Amino acid sequence: MNNAVLIGMPGCGKTTIGCRAAALLGAAFVDLDDRIVAVEGKTIPEIFEESGEAGFRAIETRILGDIADAVGAAGGEAYGRGLICSAGGGIVTRPENRALLEKIGRIIFIYRNLDEIAASVTYDASRPLLRDPAAISVLWEERRSLYRAWADREFINEGDPEKAAAQLAKIIAG
Predict the structure, then answer these.
(1) Which CATH code for domain 4-173?
(2) 157 three-class SS
(3) Beta-sheet pairing, 4-7 with 83-86
(4) How far apart (Å, rounded) are the C-alpha atoms in residues 23 and 20?
(5) Segment 93-142, tens digit of pLDDT
(6) Per-domain residue ranges of the chain
(7) Which of 35, 121, 146 is nearest to 83 (CA)?
């Protein structure tokens, strides 16, 4: 199995379908935001409050580097039968992250219709950059060209998590 890194907008399904695809493949699954919280001992909103977005992005890059180093040092074997990593939606905002993502595995851009994202995400303090539906369009305009430029493959998530996970697992296994 090939390692894969999932990128895309907040709410596009990186974590939901990525975790399910990993289970189907018997692969490890790492959510970068969850890893940040575990390592830092703080929630994402707490990090944003204390360090701002720039501080959060520096932490994100450092922890992404740790994952990339673990994969590289073990020749891809650090996570057993393979790894699927869900990167945060803003991972593409720091150019140095691209090489780290590539070191982990194939980069797959998860695309989901913005109206579906807007209808499904929660707008609260748990998502510091996604406080209201209008923010989705702003983030999309800022990031869409980067998602597409960085990706080795684009995957369209049409909303059914089980079906999408099965399709994604086939792509990753292939």
Answers:
(1) 3.40.50.300
(2) coil
(3) parallel
(4) 5
(5) 999 999 999 999 999 999 998 888 877 765 555 555 556 667 788 888 99
(6) 4-173
(7) 35
